[in-house]
Amino acid sequence: MRSWAVFFVMCGVLWPASDAYRAQIEKWRRQREAALTADGGWLTVTGLFWLHEGMNTFGSAASNDIVLPADPALDDGGAFRLSKGKVVFSMGFEARELQPDSNGKPDAVTLGSLTMFVIQRGGKFGIRLKDNNSRLRKEFTGLHYFPVREEYRIRTRLVPDSRKIPILNVLGQVEDTPSPGYVEFEIDGQKLRLTPVQEAPNELSFIFRDLTAGKETYGSGRFLDTELGKDGEVVLDFNKAYNPPCAFTPYATCPLPPKENRLGVRIEAGELKYGTH
Q: What global pTM score does this model have?
């Protein structure tokens, strides 16, 4: 009888913890979907226009270099002038230089429901368009996931190896990106390694691909973000693996997994391929 009592006490300790973990993941999923569908979220990205040197006209008329959705705010149109790596927006009596998008804080121009800002990829400059009335946003069908499995929450440590790794994007450009090291872990008895990139202190981003890619999950791979903890502690929670913006809009310029992050195992956790449910 005592052994059964101990068993039930143990269950009383373990099950609430699992329930709490499941609730944590469900909350993260709701926040993820809210950000995706919000004003200015990735579902509002409806255009990407690469600029040529000189004047690039914009407006709703087909004669413009950049043809935008019809909007009363665009009746007179305007232009983006690219000269020696600088972009100047002009419309009517307004003219100002626009700085390229940096850390998700664009120097934007808002016209009605439309927002435009400059992005720079390598030596190319473009105008990214967001439309809060986009078809992608209106027809969004929701996110779907593998079942939550706590064994895919893995504790490990960063092995310091500071260097720059080449990251290829969907445009075919390669950018040497800072990486502080790598992590090692096991799944299904296989020893694995992932190399993160680091764009902010104590924040790691993993761009990876596993054997579910192109089947249950997005073909190019997925992202996983985590914190770099005390003494190099890292928690890889694959239940929070998510699709890149390219899974939702053709106007993103997503990075692709580096060679060392293409895993020869199935990771049946996290976000599924969009639009298949």
A: 0.88
